[in-house]
Amino acid sequence: MTISDITLIIFLLGIFISIIGGAITLFGLVKKNGKLKRNLFIMLISLSSSLLAFVINNYRLISFSGLLFFAGIAGMFWGITLLIIEIFKIDGNKNKFFAVILCSITISLFSGMFLLSGSNNQKTFSLQTSEQGLRVPLPKISLDDETFIISGTGVANSTITIRKNDEVISTLSTDKNGDFKYIGNLPEKEDMVLDITDDNTSRQVTIKSLLTIEIEEAQRQEALNEREEEAKIQQTENQSTSESDDNNEDNGSQISKAEEEAIVKQKKALVEQIEEIVSNDLNRTEIDRITINENMGREDGSFVVLIHLIYDIKNSKSSTKETIEMFSSHIFASIVNPELVSDGAIFWQVPYHEAEPNEVLAKFSFIEEDGKALIKEESFYNTLK
Predict the structure, then answer these.
(1) Which CATH code fits 259-384?
(2) For the chain, what are the domain ranges?
(3) Biased composition, Polar residues: where in the chain (predicted)?
(4) For 91-124, how does the pLDDT look when each residue is reduced to its tens digit (9 = 90+)?
(5) Which of 17, 157, 209, 241 registers the highest number of CB atoms within 10 A of its CB?
(6) Are 7 and 69 in contact, with CB atoms under 8 Å apart?
(7) Mean pLDDT of all residues in 356-364
(8) What is the DSSP letter of 383?
């Protein structure tokens, strides 16, 4: 049973108690105007608080929901006490202390039962969340039919709500394995931010528009063309230099130049691979700079890659940390190669959280081991600590 289910039960109980209490008050206390007004007011507060708690909880405004939730409970239990007093003909004027004690016992008893039930339920839910949780990987984009697919996992047999600008656009149910899938159309001009929530967790996913994808692809192609032109110019200069060199240059020097050219090509290919990963897979992420050096600690000719990225989105601290950690792992897993990339780090700038311009707020370093990327250090600085 989830918090929303408990809230619904309280809401229904509030209606029931309000109707019964109101009926008894109207038909049994018509002549006692003071008590009539008091009881009707209490029943109205009970009904309104329960209704507001139910509505607000389902819109995930938890801080207000908690207050109104317990206000509804208190109103209902006070109403129950009044009903007991009226049913058993207890004279509240002559037995004020008895009425207060009875009210206190009733509230304590039912509140204790509710809190115990809620505590057990919360413990179970927290265990499920820690083991599974709500995970929403990067969406898959299909330009053929201009759609995107979000495939995620959550708690088994739970409800997943997808909102756009606080408006619910879809409600899904996870299967017995906790999997769910949502298919939508790519926006045409403006990027779209979706809030994906279950009963206790929220994730935010940005869907790039067709216009953004087109612009980024054009920019990427332009950058590739510029690098190809630079490579051609460099190659021409190298050839001219080589032709002007002494024809008696030894074979060792020729081999050295060939190795240098091979290294340049490898670095270029690696930069292009990283740019493609960031462009296609990392939402709202830009490359600040990429530095590739030879790993002097190894003799296999592998590289150390230093990547500086900018994650430009307004998001909570916890969601930001989870997202950049997931992005870093994705890049590491994609570029690590025993013969090419053996070590490196990713440095993150997050303008929304930075206290100073161009401030590095997170660093993830990795190392290659048995062909796999292992994160050896992750650090968060200043506002992301």
Answers:
(1) 3.10.570.10
(2) 3-131, 140-207, 209-240, 259-384
(3) 233-242
(4) 545 444 455 445 545 554 554 454 444 433 333 3
(5) 17
(6) yes
(7) 84
(8) G
Candidates 174, 135, 132; CA nearest to 156 is 174
d(CA 221, CA 230): 14
Which of 118-122, 177-181, 297-301, 369-373 has the least mean pLDDT? 118-122
Taking the CA atoms of the chain, what radius of gyration do you get in angstroms?
32
Q: How far apart are CA 62 and CA 258, in angstroms?
A: 65
Q: Which residue do the tokens 């110019």 mark?
A: 233
| Residue of 265, 271, 269 lying closest to 232 (CA atoms) | 265
Architecture per CATH, 140-207: Sandwich (2.60)
Name the one residue in this structure whose structure tokens are 């019964």.
Answer: 20
Phi, psi of 309 (to 5 degrees): -120, 155
Give CA–CA dist 221/276, Å, rounded: 10
DSSP string, 213-227: HHHHHHHHHHHHHHH
The CA distances from residue 263 to 1, 7, 90, 244, 268, in Å, are 60, 64, 94, 23, 9
pTM for the whole structure:
0.38
pLDDT digits (tens, 9 = 90+) for 235-254: 776 666 666 555 555 555 55
Q: Tell me the pairing of strands 372-380 and 360-369.
A: antiparallel
